[in-house]
């Protein structure tokens, strides 16, 4: 549909969007697991564009500058979480493309403090997945508490997990990575990127794992991950919502899955620091995501491919 070009607030900028990543969270919005508070809403929270207009209170940004917008659209800046740098837990947290219009469009506005300079080493299409898949993967890896030489499991192998694997190879060179994925295409991709083993989500790895990051939309992989977790290990669930099938949790056996001081930790959103730190790290290590491009007109096709098809890297819309 056609809508008017938005006007930035006094502290905001107008971006002319060039690319926007496609994320499973958009399916969660469409299918009602994390519904927008109002409709219609423009999806998209991995946005790359160039500054087209600037609010009267904005400084340090020029027309034509390349900026990115991530899942974090705004936070209050006053609560105990914001003051501690944990804007992801702010009660007034707003998400790009859910609580405010996002990047499946030619233009969008955002407060200048929630837009990020994109390192020159990345093209627009390469940069888009870094703003969610990369940044949330970075946060997940930090929360995993991994030490070099420990074993890491990745449950699911989509846009975020493939970037985590690349980060691990750079930051934890003595760590072996074990990948659990539903399709043979994903498993082969993981092996090509350096995983030491790849199997189905219900399989058992050849060794118990010190940390596991789950990026799947389903409940059953949580049970399967806990069965692969070492005593004292940590499972990090990187998913904003899980789909149906909670009956899988009835298979939880306390001695097998939870005893021996195993931990479960969820990832909730991202902070401004997550995005800034990850973009710097990605530029330093030359981290380039595997990308499949679609036009904006193919957004539904990209979403269905994400839902039903094998995933090799990230999917990105090119906005004309």
SSE layout:
Layout: E1 12-22, H1 24-30, E2 47-54, E3 66-69, E4 72-74, H2 80-83, E5 94-95, E6 107-111, E7 116-117, H3 124-127, H4 133-144, E8 152-155, H5 159-171, E9 177-180, H6 184-192, E10 197-199, E11 209-214, H7 220-228, E12 229-237, H8 254-258, E13 263-266, H9 272-285, E14 291-295, H10 299-308, E15 314-318
Parallel strand pairs: 8-9, 8-11, 9-10, 11-12, 12-13, 14-15
Antiparallel strand pairs: 1-2, 1-6, 1-15, 2-3, 3-7, 4-5
Structure description:
Strands 1, 2, 3, 6, 7, 14 and 15 form a seven-stranded mixed β-sheet that branches. The chain has a six-stranded parallel β-sheet with strand order 10-9-8-11-12-13, with helices on both faces. The protein is 27% helix and 23% strand. The model has no long low-confidence stretch (mean pLDDT 96). The radius of gyration is 19 Å and the shape is globular. It has 320 residues and is α/β, with parallel strands linked by helices.
Shape: globular
Intertermini distance: 15 Å
Overall pLDDT? 96
Number of strands: 15
H/E element sequence = EHEEEHEEEHHEHEHEEHEHEHEHE
> How many H/I helices?
10
């Amino acid at each position: 549909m056609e809508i008017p070009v938005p006007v930035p607030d006094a502290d905001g900028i107008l971006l002319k969007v060039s690319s926007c990543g496609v994320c499973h969270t958009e399916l969660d919005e469409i299918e009602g697991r994390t519904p927008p508070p109002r409709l219609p809403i423009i999806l998209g929270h991995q946005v790359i564009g160039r500054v087209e207009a600037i609010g009267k209170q904005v400084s340090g940004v020029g027309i034509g500058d390349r900026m990115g917008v991530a899942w974090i659209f705004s936070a209050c800046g006053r609560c105990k979480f914001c003051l501690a740098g944990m804007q992801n837990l702010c009660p007034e947290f707003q998400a790009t493309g859910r609580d405010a219009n996002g990047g499946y469009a030619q233009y969008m506005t955002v407060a200048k403090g929630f837009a990020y300079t994109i390192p020159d080493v990345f093209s627009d299409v390469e940069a888009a997945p870094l703003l969610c898949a990369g940044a949330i993967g970075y946060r997940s890896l930090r929360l995993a508490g991994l030490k070099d030489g420990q074993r890491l499991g990745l449950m699911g192998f989509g846009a975020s997990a493939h970037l985590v694997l690349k980060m691990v190879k750079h930051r934890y060179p003595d760590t072996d990575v074990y990948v659990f994925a539903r399709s043979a295409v994903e498993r082969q991709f993981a092996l090509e990127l350096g995983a030491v083993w790849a199997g189905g989500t219900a399989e058992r790895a050849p060794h118990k794992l010190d940390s596991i990051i789950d990026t799947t939309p389903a409940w059953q992989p949580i049970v399967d991950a806990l069965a692969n977790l070492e005593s004292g290990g940590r499972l990090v669930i990187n998913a904003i919502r899980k789909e149906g099938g909670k009956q899988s949790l009835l298979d939880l056996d306390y001695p097998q899955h939870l005893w021996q001081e195993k931990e479960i930790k969820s990832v909730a959103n991202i902070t401004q620091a997550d995005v800034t730190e990850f973009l710097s790290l990605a530029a330093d290590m030359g981290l380039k995501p595997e990308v499949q491009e679609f036009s904006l007109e193919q957004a539904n096709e990209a979403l269905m491919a994400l839902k039903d098809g094998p995933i090799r890297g990230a999917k990105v819309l090119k906005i004309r």
